[in-house]
Amino acid sequence: MLRLGVLVSGGGSNLQAILNGIQEGIIPNTKVVTVISNKPYVYALERAKQQGIDQFYFDPASYPTREAYDQALVDYLNKKEVDLVILAGFMRVLGENFIHSFPNRIMNIHPSLIPSFCGKGYYGLKVHEAVLSYGVKITGATVHFVDTGTDTGPIILQKAVPVLEEDTPEILQKRVMEEAEWKIYPKAIALYAQGKIKIEGRIVKTDF
Ligand code: GAR
After folding, report:
1. Which residues, other chains included, contact 189 with Cβ-Cβ below 8 Å and sequence gap of 6+?
2. 109-144+154-180+197-208 has which fold?
3. pTM of the full structure
4. Which of the ends of the chain has fewer CB neighbours closer than 10 A, N or C?
5. Which are the catalytic amino acids?
């Protein structure tokens, strides 16, 4: 049984897509054992609560340093015997100690086709605003392993989505979520759960 720990900061629609994937058997032999938020009262925590899943708000203000906060997360995830850490709209950069505690065992979803519109300052709606102001005609989403850079880790899956002339950032965000994020995140976790992911340097192979 693959044990997931999901880190969130907001609505949790990706968390929901993962829970649905598990329920529908698209993600086999997998369980979400805890949902952790760095923000209080977010709907993602409510979703976990409704499903009877362990959920926890870790308040950054309660820890003296960023390292102490990250270590508290590591300790809790280890206590819950988490195999794979899932960042699902977690809007906080994790330090090197956290990343090294789960080598190639942290996945993230980013709402663009990496390496475009990613890195420092590109998160949530800001990504879609940047996509629209640049005028690209195709965007999408990326699931990748997390390394110590921002959005630089090995890419697992990507899916493209068209940008339409009448799009607002909100409309585009919704299309990227519905047509890309909610499909590729459950799929990437399913591949991992089935042992179908091999990492060679920064290249991820899923068809071997
Ligand atoms: C998603 O669009 C996700 O790709 C993005 O935040 C949103 C969270 O939505 N993540 C990032 O921008 C990370 N850099 P959700 O809480 O409904 O899953």
Report:
1. 2, 4, 18, 21, 27, 30, 84, 86, 107
2. Rossmann fold (3.40.50)
3. 0.98
4. C
5. 110
- Cβ-in-10-Å burial (0-12, 13-18, 19+) of 65 comes to exposed
Our mutation pick for probing the ligand 1 site, out of 177, 178, 182, counting the most ligand atoms within 8 A of Cβ, is 177
Beta-bridge mates of residue 8? 37
Q: Which two tokens stand for residue 43?
A: 């709907």
Judge if the beta carbon of residue 5 lies within 6 A of ligand 1: no
Confirm or reject: Cβ of 111 under 6 Å from ligand 1.
Answer: yes
Ligand 1 within 6 A of CB of 12? yes
Nearest partner of 127 among 111, 142, 140, 108, judged by Cα: 111
Token readout for 91 is 């809007």
Cα Rg of the chain (Å, integer): 16
CATH dotted code for 1-102: 3.40.50.170
List pLDDT tens digits, range 94-116: 999 999 999 999 999 999 999 99
Separation of CA 109 and ligand 1 centre (Å): 7
